[in-house]
Design a protein that fits this description.
The structure holds two protein chains of two kinds. By secondary structure, chain A is of the alpha+beta class. In chain A, 36% of the residues lie in helices and 26% in strands. In chain A, the strands form three sheets. A five-stranded antiparallel sheet of chain A has the order 4-3-2-1-12, with no helix packed on it. Chain A has a four-stranded antiparallel sheet with strand order 5-6-7-8, with no helix packed on it. Chain A has a three-stranded antiparallel sheet with strand order 9-10-11, with no helix packed on it. In chain A, helix 1 packs antiparallel against helix 5 and helix 1 crosses helix 6. The two termini of chain A are 26 Å apart. The model of chain A has no long low-confidence stretch (mean pLDDT 85). Helices cover 39% and strands 20% of the residues of chain B. Chain B has a five-stranded antiparallel sheet with strand order 1-2-3-4-5, with helices on both faces. In chain B, helix 3 packs antiparallel against helix 5. Chain B is globular, with a radius of gyration of 20 Å. In chain B, 32% of the residues are buried. Classes of the chains: A alpha+beta, B alpha+beta.
Protein backbone atom coordinates (compact mmCIF):
# COMPACT_ATOMS: atom_id res chain seq x y z
CA UNK A 1 0.00 0.00 0.00
CA UNK A 2 1.39 3.41 -0.93
CA UNK A 3 1.17 6.00 1.73
CA UNK A 4 0.98 9.65 0.89
CA UNK A 5 3.66 11.81 2.45
CA UNK A 6 1.17 13.37 4.81
CA UNK A 7 0.21 9.89 6.15
CA UNK A 8 3.77 8.78 6.81
CA UNK A 9 4.74 8.88 10.46
CA UNK A 10 7.95 10.81 11.02
CA UNK A 11 9.10 10.74 14.61
CA UNK A 12 9.82 14.14 16.02
CA UNK A 13 11.90 13.03 19.00
CA UNK A 14 15.51 12.19 18.31
CA UNK A 15 15.43 9.39 20.87
CA UNK A 16 12.58 7.73 18.93
CA UNK A 17 14.46 8.09 15.65
CA UNK A 18 17.52 6.48 17.24
CA UNK A 19 15.31 3.77 18.67
CA UNK A 20 13.91 2.96 15.23
CA UNK A 21 17.43 2.84 13.80
CA UNK A 22 18.60 0.50 16.55
CA UNK A 23 15.45 -1.57 16.09
CA UNK A 24 16.11 -1.95 12.35
CA UNK A 25 19.78 -2.82 12.79
CA UNK A 26 19.12 -5.38 15.52
CA UNK A 27 16.26 -6.80 13.45
CA UNK A 28 18.52 -7.20 10.42
CA UNK A 29 21.25 -8.89 12.44
CA UNK A 30 18.77 -11.10 14.27
CA UNK A 31 16.95 -12.25 11.14
CA UNK A 32 19.83 -14.45 9.97
CA UNK A 33 20.23 -16.03 13.38
CA UNK A 34 16.49 -16.55 13.74
CA UNK A 35 16.49 -18.47 10.47
CA UNK A 36 19.31 -20.72 11.73
CA UNK A 37 17.61 -21.27 15.09
CA UNK A 38 14.25 -22.02 13.52
CA UNK A 39 15.63 -24.53 11.02
CA UNK A 40 17.76 -26.35 13.60
CA UNK A 41 14.89 -26.21 16.10
CA UNK A 42 12.46 -27.74 13.62
CA UNK A 43 14.93 -30.47 12.73
CA UNK A 44 15.62 -31.29 16.39
CA UNK A 45 11.90 -31.35 17.14
CA UNK A 46 11.52 -34.11 14.56
CA UNK A 47 14.70 -35.86 15.63
CA UNK A 48 13.19 -39.36 15.73
CA UNK A 49 11.42 -39.08 12.40
CA UNK A 50 14.47 -37.68 10.65
CA UNK A 51 16.75 -40.21 12.41
CA UNK A 52 19.30 -37.49 13.07
CA UNK A 53 21.06 -39.64 15.65
CA UNK A 54 21.78 -42.31 13.04
CA UNK A 55 23.24 -39.92 10.44
CA UNK A 56 26.90 -39.09 10.69
CA UNK A 57 28.78 -36.04 9.51
CA UNK A 58 31.75 -36.79 7.28
CA UNK A 59 32.72 -33.25 6.35
CA UNK A 60 36.39 -32.75 7.21
CA UNK A 61 36.02 -29.06 8.06
CA UNK A 62 33.32 -29.76 10.65
CA UNK A 63 35.16 -32.79 12.04
CA UNK A 64 38.29 -30.65 12.37
CA UNK A 65 36.22 -27.99 14.12
CA UNK A 66 35.26 -30.66 16.65
CA UNK A 67 38.94 -31.68 16.86
CA UNK A 68 38.04 -35.26 16.03
CA UNK A 69 41.38 -36.80 15.24
CA UNK A 70 42.03 -39.12 12.32
CA UNK A 71 44.12 -41.24 14.66
CA UNK A 72 42.13 -41.55 17.87
CA UNK A 73 43.95 -42.27 21.10
CA UNK A 74 43.16 -45.81 22.16
CA UNK A 75 43.66 -46.78 25.79
CA UNK A 76 43.54 -50.38 26.94
CA UNK A 77 43.42 -52.55 30.00
CA UNK A 78 44.03 -56.29 29.64
CA UNK A 79 42.99 -58.75 32.31
CA UNK A 80 42.13 -62.46 32.26
CA UNK A 81 42.33 -62.49 28.48
CA UNK A 82 39.83 -59.66 28.09
CA UNK A 83 40.72 -56.32 26.56
CA UNK A 84 38.83 -53.25 27.69
CA UNK A 85 39.52 -50.38 25.29
CA UNK A 86 38.38 -46.77 25.29
CA UNK A 87 38.38 -44.18 22.53
CA UNK A 88 37.22 -40.84 23.89
CA UNK A 89 34.05 -41.76 25.77
CA UNK A 90 33.39 -45.00 23.86
CA UNK A 91 34.12 -48.27 25.63
CA UNK A 92 34.83 -51.57 23.89
CA UNK A 93 35.13 -55.07 25.32
CA UNK A 94 37.46 -56.87 22.96
CA UNK A 95 36.06 -55.50 19.68
CA UNK A 96 32.47 -55.11 20.89
CA UNK A 97 31.12 -51.63 21.59
CA UNK A 98 29.68 -51.54 25.12
CA UNK A 99 28.69 -47.98 25.92
CA UNK A 100 29.53 -44.29 25.87
CA UNK A 101 30.27 -42.91 29.30
CA UNK A 102 31.95 -39.99 31.02
CA UNK A 103 32.76 -42.22 34.00
CA UNK A 104 36.42 -42.95 34.61
CA UNK A 105 36.80 -46.69 34.24
CA UNK A 106 39.18 -48.43 36.60
CA UNK A 107 39.36 -52.06 35.56
CA UNK A 108 37.78 -55.27 34.45
CA UNK A 109 37.25 -58.76 35.84
CA UNK A 110 35.70 -61.85 34.36
CA UNK A 111 33.82 -64.32 36.52
CA UNK A 112 31.42 -67.07 35.41
CA UNK A 113 31.56 -65.76 31.83
CA UNK A 114 30.39 -62.36 33.00
CA UNK A 115 32.62 -59.35 32.32
CA UNK A 116 32.56 -56.87 35.22
CA UNK A 117 33.57 -53.34 34.20
CA UNK A 118 34.38 -51.11 37.18
CA UNK A 119 34.20 -47.36 37.70
CA UNK A 120 34.57 -45.67 41.08
CA UNK A 121 31.04 -46.39 42.29
CA UNK A 122 29.51 -48.67 39.67
CA UNK A 123 30.07 -52.09 38.20
CA UNK A 124 28.53 -52.90 34.86
CA UNK A 125 28.13 -56.58 34.07
CA UNK A 126 28.12 -57.80 30.48
CA UNK A 127 27.64 -61.07 28.69
CA UNK A 128 30.38 -62.25 26.33
CA UNK A 129 28.29 -60.81 23.51
CA UNK A 130 28.43 -57.35 25.10
CA UNK A 131 24.83 -57.37 26.37
CA UNK A 132 24.37 -55.45 29.60
CA UNK A 133 23.20 -57.77 32.36
CA UNK A 134 23.07 -55.25 35.14
CA UNK A 135 24.51 -52.01 36.47
CA UNK A 136 25.07 -52.25 40.21
CA UNK A 137 26.26 -49.70 42.72
CA UNK A 138 29.37 -50.86 44.57
CA UNK A 139 29.21 -51.27 48.36
CA UNK A 140 32.02 -48.67 48.65
CA UNK A 141 33.70 -46.07 46.46
CA UNK A 142 36.93 -47.40 44.97
CA UNK A 143 39.98 -45.89 43.32
CA UNK A 144 41.67 -48.94 41.75
CA UNK A 145 40.99 -52.52 40.70
CA UNK A 146 43.47 -55.32 41.30
CA UNK A 147 43.46 -59.01 40.47
CA UNK A 148 40.76 -61.63 40.89
CA UNK A 149 41.62 -64.22 43.52
CA UNK A 150 39.15 -67.12 43.37
CA UNK A 151 35.89 -65.21 43.32
CA UNK A 152 37.14 -62.14 45.18
CA UNK A 153 38.37 -59.07 43.38
CA UNK A 154 40.96 -56.94 45.14
CA UNK A 155 40.02 -53.27 45.26
CA UNK A 156 41.61 -50.12 46.56
CA UNK A 157 39.19 -48.00 48.53
CA UNK A 158 38.96 -44.31 47.85
CA UNK A 159 40.67 -42.51 50.68
CA UNK A 160 43.01 -45.44 51.29
CA UNK A 161 42.77 -49.06 52.32
CA UNK A 162 42.51 -52.32 50.43
CA UNK A 163 39.53 -54.62 50.38
CA UNK A 164 38.04 -57.41 48.31
CA UNK A 165 34.68 -57.68 46.59
CA UNK A 166 33.07 -61.09 46.40
CA UNK A 167 31.64 -61.43 42.92
CA UNK A 168 29.27 -64.09 44.32
CA UNK A 169 27.71 -62.33 47.32
CA UNK A 170 28.65 -58.82 46.19
CA UNK A 171 29.90 -58.07 49.69
CA UNK A 172 33.20 -56.59 50.75
CA UNK A 173 35.52 -59.21 52.17
CA UNK A 174 39.26 -59.71 52.25
CA UNK A 175 40.62 -62.40 49.92
CA UNK A 176 42.10 -65.49 51.51
CA UNK A 177 45.56 -65.11 49.98
CA UNK A 178 48.00 -62.22 50.20
CA UNK A 179 47.02 -59.06 48.36
CA UNK A 180 48.71 -58.10 45.10
CA UNK A 181 50.25 -54.69 44.76
CA UNK A 182 49.69 -54.31 41.03
CA UNK A 183 46.63 -52.31 40.08
CA UNK A 184 44.99 -52.27 36.69
CA UNK A 185 45.62 -49.11 34.69
CA UNK A 186 44.83 -47.94 31.18
CA UNK A 187 47.80 -47.73 28.84
CA UNK A 188 47.89 -45.85 25.55
CA UNK A 189 48.16 -48.17 22.55
CA UNK A 190 49.39 -46.99 19.15
CA UNK A 191 48.54 -50.42 17.78
CA UNK A 192 45.31 -51.47 19.47
CA UNK A 193 44.62 -55.16 20.11
CA UNK A 194 41.52 -54.87 17.92
CA UNK A 195 42.25 -52.48 15.02
CA UNK A 196 38.63 -52.77 13.85
CA UNK A 197 37.50 -50.39 16.62
CA UNK A 198 39.57 -47.60 15.06
CA UNK A 199 38.55 -48.18 11.45
CA UNK A 200 36.07 -45.51 10.35
CA UNK A 201 36.11 -44.01 13.86
CA UNK A 202 36.32 -40.39 12.68
CA UNK A 203 33.36 -40.78 10.31
CA UNK A 204 31.23 -42.41 13.02
CA UNK A 205 32.07 -39.90 15.73
CA UNK A 206 29.72 -37.00 15.08
CA UNK A 207 25.99 -37.40 14.54
CA UNK A 208 23.86 -34.85 12.73
CA UNK A 209 21.76 -34.55 15.88
CA UNK A 210 24.78 -33.50 17.94
CA UNK A 211 25.92 -31.00 15.32
CA UNK A 212 22.46 -29.43 15.02
CA UNK A 213 22.12 -29.28 18.79
CA UNK A 214 25.50 -27.57 19.02
CA UNK A 215 24.58 -25.07 16.28
CA UNK A 216 21.25 -24.42 18.00
CA UNK A 217 22.91 -23.77 21.37
CA UNK A 218 26.01 -22.07 19.95
CA UNK A 219 28.28 -24.74 21.43
CA UNK A 220 29.74 -25.47 18.00
CA UNK A 221 31.88 -22.36 18.58
CA UNK A 222 32.81 -23.39 22.11
CA UNK A 223 31.91 -21.50 25.25
CA UNK A 224 32.04 -18.19 23.34
CA UNK A 225 29.28 -19.51 21.08
CA UNK A 226 27.03 -20.14 24.08
CA UNK A 227 27.54 -16.56 25.22
CA UNK A 228 26.84 -15.32 21.70
CA UNK A 229 23.53 -17.18 21.63
CA UNK A 230 22.75 -15.74 25.07
CA UNK A 231 23.58 -12.30 23.71
CA UNK A 232 21.32 -12.98 20.75
CA UNK A 233 18.52 -13.90 23.12
CA UNK A 234 19.08 -10.59 24.87
CA UNK A 235 18.99 -8.79 21.51
CA UNK A 236 15.61 -10.38 20.80
CA UNK A 237 14.38 -9.02 24.12
CA UNK A 238 15.70 -5.58 23.14
CA UNK A 239 14.04 -5.95 19.75
CA UNK A 240 10.72 -6.74 21.36
CA UNK A 241 11.00 -3.83 23.78
CA UNK A 242 12.16 -1.24 21.20
CA UNK A 243 9.34 -2.35 18.92
CA UNK A 244 6.81 -1.92 21.70
CA UNK A 245 8.16 1.49 22.73
CA UNK A 246 8.17 2.80 19.14
CA UNK A 247 4.64 1.53 18.58
CA UNK A 248 3.48 3.05 21.84
CA UNK A 249 4.99 6.44 20.96
CA UNK A 250 3.52 6.38 17.46
CA UNK A 251 0.04 5.62 18.75
CA UNK A 252 0.32 8.29 21.41
CA UNK A 253 1.34 10.90 18.85
CA UNK A 254 -1.44 9.91 16.49
CA UNK A 255 -4.00 10.17 19.24
CA UNK A 256 -2.62 13.65 20.06
CA UNK A 257 -2.92 14.63 16.37
CA UNK A 258 -6.56 13.48 16.20
CA UNK A 259 -7.43 15.60 19.20
CA UNK B 1 13.82 8.31 29.81
CA UNK B 2 14.48 5.45 27.41
CA UNK B 3 17.52 4.43 29.48
CA UNK B 4 15.37 3.98 32.58
CA UNK B 5 12.80 1.83 30.78
CA UNK B 6 15.53 -0.20 29.20
CA UNK B 7 17.08 -0.87 32.60
CA UNK B 8 13.74 -2.14 33.92
CA UNK B 9 13.49 -4.49 30.93
CA UNK B 10 16.99 -5.77 31.55
CA UNK B 11 16.25 -6.45 35.22
CA UNK B 12 13.07 -8.33 34.27
CA UNK B 13 15.03 -10.39 31.74
CA UNK B 14 17.59 -11.15 34.44
CA UNK B 15 14.89 -12.72 36.60
CA UNK B 16 14.16 -15.17 33.80
CA UNK B 17 17.63 -16.68 34.12
CA UNK B 18 17.21 -19.42 36.71
CA UNK B 19 20.21 -21.45 37.82
CA UNK B 20 19.87 -25.18 37.27
CA UNK B 21 21.33 -27.26 40.07
CA UNK B 22 23.04 -30.50 39.15
CA UNK B 23 23.06 -33.53 41.35
CA UNK B 24 26.19 -35.50 40.74
CA UNK B 25 26.55 -39.16 41.59
CA UNK B 26 30.12 -39.08 42.89
CA UNK B 27 29.05 -40.63 46.17
CA UNK B 28 26.64 -43.20 44.88
CA UNK B 29 28.06 -46.06 46.96
CA UNK B 30 27.55 -44.08 50.17
CA UNK B 31 24.06 -43.04 49.07
CA UNK B 32 23.04 -46.66 48.57
CA UNK B 33 24.72 -47.87 51.77
CA UNK B 34 23.07 -45.21 53.89
CA UNK B 35 19.71 -45.86 52.24
CA UNK B 36 19.92 -49.60 52.94
CA UNK B 37 21.13 -48.90 56.47
CA UNK B 38 18.15 -46.62 57.05
CA UNK B 39 15.71 -49.29 55.82
CA UNK B 40 17.20 -52.44 57.33
CA UNK B 41 19.29 -51.05 60.19
CA UNK B 42 22.52 -52.89 60.93
CA UNK B 43 21.22 -56.17 59.45
CA UNK B 44 21.28 -55.29 55.76
CA UNK B 45 20.42 -58.52 53.89
CA UNK B 46 22.58 -59.83 51.06
CA UNK B 47 21.56 -58.54 47.65
CA UNK B 48 19.55 -60.85 45.39
CA UNK B 49 18.87 -60.66 41.69
CA UNK B 50 15.77 -61.19 39.62
CA UNK B 51 16.37 -62.30 36.05
CA UNK B 52 14.02 -60.95 33.44
CA UNK B 53 12.55 -64.11 31.98
CA UNK B 54 10.58 -63.82 28.76
CA UNK B 55 7.15 -63.27 30.34
CA UNK B 56 8.49 -60.74 32.83
CA UNK B 57 10.46 -58.96 30.12
CA UNK B 58 7.29 -58.54 28.06
CA UNK B 59 5.57 -56.84 30.99
CA UNK B 60 8.60 -54.61 31.56
CA UNK B 61 8.54 -53.60 27.89
CA UNK B 62 4.87 -52.70 28.32
CA UNK B 63 5.73 -50.47 31.26
CA UNK B 64 8.87 -48.85 29.86
CA UNK B 65 7.62 -48.63 26.28
CA UNK B 66 11.07 -49.77 25.20
CA UNK B 67 13.31 -52.79 25.61
CA UNK B 68 14.90 -52.78 29.06
CA UNK B 69 18.63 -52.11 29.04
CA UNK B 70 19.31 -54.86 31.59
CA UNK B 71 18.82 -58.61 31.97
CA UNK B 72 18.41 -58.72 35.74
CA UNK B 73 17.45 -56.42 38.60
CA UNK B 74 19.06 -56.22 42.03
CA UNK B 75 17.12 -56.08 45.27
CA UNK B 76 17.46 -56.46 49.01
CA UNK B 77 14.77 -58.13 51.12
CA UNK B 78 14.27 -59.27 54.67
CA UNK B 79 11.16 -61.21 53.67
CA UNK B 80 8.65 -58.41 54.17
CA UNK B 81 10.37 -55.29 52.87
CA UNK B 82 11.91 -55.14 49.39
CA UNK B 83 14.32 -52.48 48.21
CA UNK B 84 14.85 -52.22 44.46
CA UNK B 85 17.60 -50.08 42.96
CA UNK B 86 16.60 -49.40 39.38
CA UNK B 87 17.73 -47.12 36.57
CA UNK B 88 15.62 -45.50 33.92
CA UNK B 89 16.51 -42.91 31.31
CA UNK B 90 14.93 -39.51 31.82
CA UNK B 91 15.79 -37.68 28.62
CA UNK B 92 19.28 -38.87 27.80
CA UNK B 93 20.80 -39.96 31.10
CA UNK B 94 19.92 -42.72 33.56
CA UNK B 95 18.27 -41.73 36.81
CA UNK B 96 18.92 -44.16 39.67
CA UNK B 97 15.96 -44.77 41.97
CA UNK B 98 15.61 -46.76 45.20
CA UNK B 99 12.09 -48.05 45.78
CA UNK B 100 11.01 -49.63 49.07
CA UNK B 101 8.02 -51.94 48.72
CA UNK B 102 6.11 -53.77 51.45
CA UNK B 103 2.77 -55.60 51.19
CA UNK B 104 2.62 -54.76 47.46
CA UNK B 105 2.61 -51.03 48.20
CA UNK B 106 5.37 -48.47 47.87
CA UNK B 107 6.65 -47.25 51.22
CA UNK B 108 9.26 -44.91 49.81
CA UNK B 109 10.68 -43.80 46.49
CA UNK B 110 14.01 -42.01 46.48
CA UNK B 111 16.27 -40.63 43.78
CA UNK B 112 19.80 -41.89 44.46
CA UNK B 113 21.44 -40.33 41.43
CA UNK B 114 20.21 -37.73 39.00
CA UNK B 115 22.41 -37.17 35.97
CA UNK B 116 20.18 -35.07 33.71
CA UNK B 117 20.55 -31.30 33.51
CA UNK B 118 16.79 -30.72 33.92
CA UNK B 119 13.96 -32.30 35.85
CA UNK B 120 15.84 -32.55 39.15
CA UNK B 121 12.69 -31.37 40.96
CA UNK B 122 11.62 -35.01 41.24
CA UNK B 123 14.16 -35.35 44.05
CA UNK B 124 12.00 -33.18 46.30
CA UNK B 125 9.90 -34.75 49.06
CA UNK B 126 6.75 -32.99 47.85
CA UNK B 127 7.00 -35.12 44.72
CA UNK B 128 8.33 -38.45 46.03
CA UNK B 129 5.87 -38.52 48.94
CA UNK B 130 3.06 -38.96 46.41
CA UNK B 131 4.26 -42.54 45.86
CA UNK B 132 3.74 -43.61 49.47
CA UNK B 133 1.00 -46.23 49.62
CA UNK B 134 0.75 -46.57 45.85
CA UNK B 135 0.23 -50.01 44.33
CA UNK B 136 -0.56 -51.31 40.87
CA UNK B 137 -3.85 -52.60 39.49
CA UNK B 138 -4.23 -55.66 37.27
CA UNK B 139 -3.15 -53.63 34.22
CA UNK B 140 0.06 -52.74 36.08
CA UNK B 141 -0.93 -49.08 36.18
CA UNK B 142 -0.36 -47.14 39.39
CA UNK B 143 -3.60 -47.15 41.39
CA UNK B 144 -3.26 -43.55 42.57
CA UNK B 145 -2.66 -40.46 40.44
CA UNK B 146 0.78 -38.85 40.61
CA UNK B 147 0.87 -35.12 39.95
CA UNK B 148 3.51 -34.12 37.43
CA UNK B 149 5.97 -31.24 37.61
CA UNK B 150 6.14 -28.65 34.87
CA UNK B 151 9.52 -28.82 33.18
CA UNK B 152 10.27 -32.27 34.58
CA UNK B 153 7.91 -34.32 32.42
CA UNK B 154 10.44 -36.94 31.34
CA UNK B 155 11.86 -37.39 34.85
CA UNK B 156 8.34 -37.74 36.23
CA UNK B 157 7.57 -40.33 33.56
CA UNK B 158 10.76 -42.24 34.45
CA UNK B 159 9.87 -42.25 38.15
CA UNK B 160 6.40 -43.62 37.46
CA UNK B 161 7.80 -46.37 35.26
CA UNK B 162 10.32 -47.34 37.92
CA UNK B 163 7.56 -47.41 40.56
CA UNK B 164 5.52 -49.73 38.32
CA UNK B 165 8.56 -51.93 37.70
CA UNK B 166 9.41 -52.22 41.41
CA UNK B 167 5.83 -53.25 42.21
CA UNK B 168 5.76 -55.73 39.33
CA UNK B 169 9.10 -57.24 40.37
CA UNK B 170 7.96 -57.58 44.00
CA UNK B 171 4.79 -59.30 42.84
CA UNK B 172 6.90 -61.58 40.68
CA UNK B 173 9.26 -62.49 43.52
CA UNK B 174 6.26 -63.25 45.75
CA UNK B 175 4.85 -65.51 43.05
CA UNK B 176 8.21 -67.29 42.71
CA UNK B 177 8.38 -67.82 46.47
CA UNK B 178 4.79 -69.13 46.57
CA UNK B 179 5.52 -71.54 43.70
CA UNK B 180 8.68 -72.74 45.43
CA UNK B 181 6.73 -73.50 48.58
Amino acid sequence: MNLRNSDRWVPRRRSTRNLIKAHSLIGLFSAALVVVLVITGWALNHNDGLALGARHIKNDWILDLYRISEKPGVQEISSQGLVLATIDDAVFLDAIFLLSTDDTLLGIASYNDVAHVFSSSLVRMYTEQGELIETAILPATISAVGALIDSTLVLELEGGGITGLSLVSFQLELPSTSLPTRWQAFAKRDNPSYPSIVAGWRERRLTLEQALLDIHSGRIFGSIGVWLVDLFGLLLLVLASTGLIVRFRRRRRRSHQIR
Amino acid sequence: MFGGRFLVLLVCAGFLIVPTPLFANDNLADEQSSYLGRVFGSAVPLPKTLWLKEDLKEQVVDILQHTPGFLRARYWSDGTTYVWVLDEIGKTQAITFAVRVAADRIEELDVLAFRESRGWEIKHDFYTEQFIGVGVNDDLNLDKPIDGITGATLSVRASKKVAQMALLFTRYVHKDIALAQ
